[in-house]
Amino acid sequence: MSEVLLVEDLYVKYYTRRGIISAVSGVTFDVIKGEMLAVVGESGSGKSTLGYAIMRLLPRSGAVERGRIVLDGEDILRLSEEELRRIRGGKVSMVFQDPFTTLDPLRRVLDQFREFLAEHGIDAERGRIIAEEMLEAVGVPKNLANAYPHQLSGGQKQRVAIAMAIALNPLLVIADEPTTALDVVIQRQVMDLLDDVKKRGTSIMFITHDIALAIERADRVMIMYGGEVMELAEKSMLAKRALHPYTVGLLSSMPRIGSEKLPSSIPGYPPDLRSPPKGCIFHPRCPYATERCRTVKPILSEVEKNHFVKCHLVKAL
Ligand code: ATP
Ligand code: SF4
Q1: CB of 59 closer than 6 A to ligand 1?
Q2: In Å, what is the CA distance from 71 to each residue of 171, 173, 251?
Q3: Model pTM?
Q4: Any residues with CB less than 8 A from the CB of 201 and at least 6 apart, and which?
Q5: Rama region for 265: left / alpha / beta (φ>0; ψ in -120 to 50; rest)
Q6: Hey, which of 286, 294, 308 would you mutate to test ligand 2's pocket, going by the most ligand atoms within 8 Å of its Cβ?
């Protein structure tokens, strides 16, 4: 299985007037060709920061402090702005929760699609053909190509954003909460569309706070908390045998159809990333925390084949 993306020991910080925020700390993972990797965690766990760092689109206050991001053998962190323009859209692209992050509300869909393709050296006529083909492939009716984004429904706008993201056949699409703003039926259609994208051989890094959706749709699931990876496993393994107390907490906060038990939430609050807790970052909320947990940081370890957990209490199986 070939690796499309490798992220190694990545640290990202934000420098703000209120202090330095450690948004991503020591994150290591890979994305394999043609898989969907879901990145799951509560708000503030560093999921979007990770996506922006891979795209090299961090805001000015953010900086990669350490680590490597290797996409298709190229170290993203060493590329010039010009090389990055070639890679963005060409090898990696991002779909956002709000399609207006990609779409200009004041310009017709087809025009902006063609302009995006022109930036990658595709002439106007070929651009029109590709844009029309892609819009058709994602189920946007032909007559809407000349519409302005505000004339489209939320689901149609997201389809256009996905069509642009996949037009140049990238190796990887980072989809950051792409369905959160949509109603349930449209959510399902957009997720089906991402499944189709995956079937074309494009890998997907699917960022979500919804562990149930991640387990339903992804191949592997990576659980983040406080900017760190807590657990990473194939989705069936995670559904059957989640081992990290945080993952177990997330799973038990999931409502289940037919169950009489009410879902329980994880007590406490996410950490203040200006001064994260010492030792295990989850210890203030963990029901099993010991003195060791409060002082010594656990290491992400492979406890069984392809199942990684960061917890002192979980030993190799
Ligand atoms: P959400 O699901 O709410 O988008 P997330 O898991 O994607 O959350 P991030 O948005 O990456 O998490 O945030 C990680 C941490 O970095 C949080 O503490 C957040 O407040 C902080 N952060 C994110 N963006 C910025 C920014 N532009 N400037 C300063 N701090 C930021
Ligand atoms: Fe809980 Fe300790 Fe494991 Fe952290 S290391 S999750 S505090 S048991």
Answers
A1: yes
A2: 9, 12, 32
A3: 0.94
A4: 33, 34
A5: beta
A6: 286
Which atom of ligand 1 has the smallest separation from the CA of 24? 14
pLDDT in tens, the chain (317 residues): 689 999 999 999 999 999 999 999 999 999 999 999 999 999 999 999 999 999 999 999 999 999 999 999 999 999 999 999 989 999 999 999 887 788 898 999 999 999 999 999 999 999 999 999 899 888 888 889 999 999 999 899 999 999 999 999 999 999 999 988 888 888 888 899 999 999 989 999 999 999 999 999 999 999 999 999 999 999 999 999 999 999 999 998 876 656 566 556 788 999 999 999 999 999 999 999 999 999 999 999 999 999 999 999 997 66
Both structure tokens of 264: 């329980």
CB 263 within 8 Å of CB 253? yes
- Report which bound ligand comes closest to the CA of 298: 2
* Among the listed residues 303, 285, 214, the one whose alpha carbon sits nearest the alpha carbon of residue 251: 214
